[in-house]
């Protein structure tokens, strides 16, 4: 593969990465734990936290629920991002010696 072909491939990869970033920004992932619901984007930015009234008074349980729901939401968003990255990187495996 010549230099010009590699440059074209890098440009294509950059373009696909920008598209992926826009896609992930618009994906919302929701996770719930013990009355706490967390919503994050595919980029792992937190956008919403909802707490049920049943748990609002128990600060110890509330803290644990927030952490658990947040971890679940982040894990789900990471899985979605990884799947989307596979689609982009699959086209370029040969470019990096694979």
Describe this structure in words.
The chain is of the alpha+beta class and 98 residues long. It has one domain (3-96): Nucleoid-associated protein YbaB-like domain (Ybab, Chain: A). The protein is built from 3 helices and 3 strands; from the N terminus they run H-E-E-E-H-H. It has helices spanning 3-25, 53-56, 59-90; strands spanning 28-33, 36-41, 46-51. It has a 3-stranded antiparallel sheet with strand order 1-2-3. A hairpin with a 2-residue loop joins strand 1 and strand 2 (36-41). Helix 1 packs antiparallel against helix 3 (59-90). The longest helix is centred in the C-terminal third of the chain and has 32 residues, at 59-90. The chain is rod-shaped and about 65 Å long. The mean pLDDT is 87.
The figure for the number of domains is 1
Category by helix and strand content: alpha+beta
What would the CATH topology be? Ybab, Chain: A
Instruction: Give the strand order, joined by hyphens, for the main sheet.
Output: 1-2-3
Q: Which shape, going by the Cα principal axes?
A: rod-shaped
Mean of all residue-level pLDDT scores: 87
CATH secondary-structure class: Alpha Beta
**Strand-and-helix sequence, N→C?**
HEEEHH
C-alpha termini separation? 14 Å
CATH homology group: Nucleoid-associated protein YbaB-like domain
Helix content: 55-70%
Quick one: how many beta strands? 3
Parts with pLDDT < 50 across at least 5 consecutive residues: none
Radius of gyration: 19 Å
Strand content: 15-25%
Note the total helix count: 3
| CATH architecture type | 2-Layer Sandwich
Largest sheet descriptor: 3 strands, antiparallel
């Amino acid at each position: 593969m010549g230099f010009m072909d590699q440059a074209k491939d890098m440009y294509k990869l950059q373009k696909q990465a920008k598209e992926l970033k826009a896609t992930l920004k618009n994906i919302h992932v929701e996770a719930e734990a013990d009355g706490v619901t967390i919503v994050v984007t595919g980029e792992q930015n937190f956008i919403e936290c909802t707490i049920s009234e049943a748990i609002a008074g128990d600060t110890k349980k509330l803290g644990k629920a927030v952490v658990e729901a947040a971890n679940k939401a982040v894990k789900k968003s990471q899985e979605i991002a990884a799947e989307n990255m596979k689609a982009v990187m699959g086209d370029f495996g040969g470019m990096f010696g694979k």
